[in-house]
């Protein structure tokens, strides 16, 4: 449990940001748009809502299924003059245009008081701090390349260890297939295909090649034999997914692992929320590993709330109170424990977190393993173009050479 002094200081800061004791004013109403709608996600966001209400606010939940649909709703509301108090975006370049167009309020005073510059990882800060101002409140750190496996399925296939190399992983998929288990639980949607590819890219291609391609847009790197081999290895997974994979939602793929119908899923750590909702325990009912070997790259991604522009004094107070509450240590732990993420700060009580999250927190202390999520490095348009390239390669009889050329054009912006 957190020390009383830490909890007290967090509450005091929340009251200071809101401008008056909660008892002395009407609740600060905050309409919040987000896309957390699965079982585990709903349980997680409820922690933020309860914490905000206890701090003197009134959380008005507006969940919209699907990230693209949720962001579109936010954009339409802003353009239509009916903006929410806060809205979820990924910790990425997704909201950069809003900042440049002057459509967001900053939360500088909350960030300064909370010492965000000191407690948050550089990759997160680079996404939320633009031209010296804080335009978003990060709420979690996700790693989109975790490997989750069913202990029961692994036992059925006679697998007793976690793979230390890509070759060992492929061999284990073969054993699962031979045992009559769906080897890889997969959802054939463009974003799932993209994060699976990026996981393989980071593990097989390595951090240097990953950054040359996504950060530097190095055409020689894209057209290199090493990158071609990444494409080849990625396509090998096609032989280990089931016929029902096209169009499958990620949480339905997770359910296959939960039920022992599938052996392993490559997915972000938000999948743990589904295991938790099914009352499964990490290390007992299912296993998790963030890559192959002790120095595998750890891709950093996440979610954040942005605060649409408003001049209404109470709305601004609500935005600042919300930014403070969702980044506070207690709310961070309560949310992360149910969401499957890790907190955006290291000064938290880890006892409520599972072994996967504690492993993630430990890895985050090693900056050499941290690798920015591709959406932190590429614009939404470029990301969309790359998704199109990869889904075409995954679903069609396309050669790796042709996919390589298409990838080069997309990353160049043609």
UniProtKB/TrEMBL annotation:
The keyword Nucleotidyltransferase does not apply. Keywords: Signal, Transport. It holds the Pfam family SBP_bac_1. It is found in: Periplasm. SUPFAM superfamilies: Periplasmic binding protein-like II. Residues 1-24 form the signal peptide. Part of a binding-protein-dependent transport system for a sugar. Belongs to the bacterial solute-binding protein 1 family. This is Probable sugar-binding periplasmic protein. It comes from Duganella levis.
């Amino acid at each position: 449990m957190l020390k009383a002094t830490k909890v007290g200081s967090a509450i005091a800061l929340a009251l200071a940001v809101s401008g008056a004791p909660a008892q002395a004013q009407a609740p600060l109403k905050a309409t919040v748009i987000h896309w957390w709608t699965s079982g585990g996600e709903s349980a997680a966001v409820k922690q933020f809502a309860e914490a905000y209400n206890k701090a003197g606010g009134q959380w008005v939940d507006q969940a919209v299924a699907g990230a693209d649909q949720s962001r579109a709703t936010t954009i339409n509301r802003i353009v239509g003059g009916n903006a929410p108090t806060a809205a979820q975006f990924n910790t990425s370049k997704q909201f950069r245009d809003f900042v440049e167009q002057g459509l967001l309020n900053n939360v500088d005073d909350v960030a300064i008081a909370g010492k965000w510059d000191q407690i948050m990882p550089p990759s997160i800060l680079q996404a939320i701090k633009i031209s010296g101002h804080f335009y978003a409140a990060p709420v979690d750190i996700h790693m989109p390349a975790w490997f989750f496996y069913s202990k029961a399925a692994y036992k059925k296939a006679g697998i007793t260890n976690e793979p230390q190399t890509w070759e060992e992983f492929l061999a284990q998929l073969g054993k699962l297939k031979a045992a009559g288990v769906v080897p890889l639980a997969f959802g054939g949607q463009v974003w799932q295909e993209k994060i699976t590819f990026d996981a393989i890219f980071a593990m097989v291609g390595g951090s240097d090649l990953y950054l040359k391609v996504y950060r530097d847009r190095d055409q020689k790197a894209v057209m290199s034999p090493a990158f071609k081999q990444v494409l080849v290895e990625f396509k090998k997974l096609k032989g280990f997914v089931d016929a029902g994979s096209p169009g499958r939602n990620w949480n339905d793929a997770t359910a296959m692992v939960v039920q022992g119908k599938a052996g392993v899923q490559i997915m972000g750590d938000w999948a743990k929320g589904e295991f938790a909702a099914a009352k499964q325990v990490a290390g007992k009912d299912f296993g998790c590993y963030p890559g192959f070997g002790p120095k595998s790259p750890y891709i950093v991604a996440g979610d954040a709330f942005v605060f649409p522009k408003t001049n209404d004094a109470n709305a601004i107070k609500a935005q600042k109170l919300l930014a403070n509450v969702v980044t506070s240590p207690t709310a961070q732990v309560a949310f992360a424990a149910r969401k499957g993420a890790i907190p955006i700060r290291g000064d938290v009580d880890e006892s409520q977190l599972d072994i996967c999250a504690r492993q993630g927190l430990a890895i985050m202390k090693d900056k050499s393993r941290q690798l920015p999520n591709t959406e932190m490095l590429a614009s939404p348009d470029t990301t969309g173009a790359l998704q199109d390239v990869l889904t075409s390669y995954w679903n069609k009889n396309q050669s790796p050479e042709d996919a390589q050329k298409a990838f080069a054009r997309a990353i160049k912006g043609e």
